[in-house]
Amino acid sequence: MRIRDLFGRDRPVFSFEFFPPKSDDGERKLLDTVHRLKELGSSFVSVTKTGGKPAEATVNLTARLKHEVGVEAMSHMTCATAGRTEMNRIFELIRDKGIENVLPLRGDPPADQLDFVKPPDGFGFANELVQFIREREFPFCLAGAAYPEKHQQAPSLEVDLANLKVKVGAGVDFLITQMFYRNADYFAFVDRARAAGITVPIVAGIMPITNVAQIERIAALSGATIPAALQRDLDRTRGDEAGAREVGIRHATEQCRELLQRGAPGIHFYTLNQSPATSAILRELRRDYA
Question: Domain limits at 98?
């Protein structure tokens, strides 16, 4: 199923993001995790492209989740280290594995590279990769990344939004936002996007907090703002992992509930391959739609 067909059914779309584990045992545990999330009513899962593993790791795990677990799945794919011939081969592999959904991304530069450098005969931006896929008529539903507080490398909100409009115009079917902790940022972003003529569904990306130091590092890297009140609650739980997880679950549940009540078409959970927090949140939210 193409994920775009899940929207507009009067029920929110819940999805989860994972990355390929380092070991076979880790992959077995991840499959068990996704089985449990499927029972809670997850709409789809996505698998990231990690810098340390080849593209095949992402594609193969996505295929296993789709065909063995029986949940709709989407492959992330970046253009950071491959040219057009290699990207064409990868998309042919995705198609031949029966995967119907792809999230094309520029991707981060390799660890030994300070700034992003366009690969020879490759792509410099995600919109170029989207256009490449559409020109070759691969039969994929395409997602796109969006940034409520703007991409960190964009000089302004206006420039970031203009870049997003180009990407959507190249053939993106729906958007998933970067993580955020202030719902006002999401709603303001959606208003700007709609005013700019972007009409595709905009799914809210949520990363439940389970570890204070970890989330502070991730927020700093992504540009996400942690609200002062939430930061105070987290500061009181330093050294108390259970307490931090409780604060994170409570905040994310409140976030998601308001987002859905005010029209967000779905929630995409950045799980970091951990399921307890997201499972607890989804159980709470499912009560609203029982």
Answer: 3-287
Instruction: Assign residue 249 the CATH number of its domain.
Output: 3.20.20.220
Distance from C-alpha of 126 to C-alpha of 142, rounded to nearest angstrom: 11
Alpha helix positions (H), the chain? 24-39, 55-64, 84-96, 126-135, 157-171, 183-195, 212-222, 228-235, 241-261, 276-287
What's the structural domain count of the chain? 1
Alpha carbon separation from 109 to 59, 84, 114, 123, 131 (Å, rounded): 20, 17, 7, 12, 21
Active site residues: 17
> Tens digit of pLDDT for each residue in 97-124?
999 999 999 887 666 666 777 888 889 8
Q: Write the pLDDT tens digit of every residue in 214-266.
A: 999 999 988 999 999 999 999 999 989 999 999 999 999 999 999 999 999 99
Q: Quick one: DSSP state of residue 273?
A: T
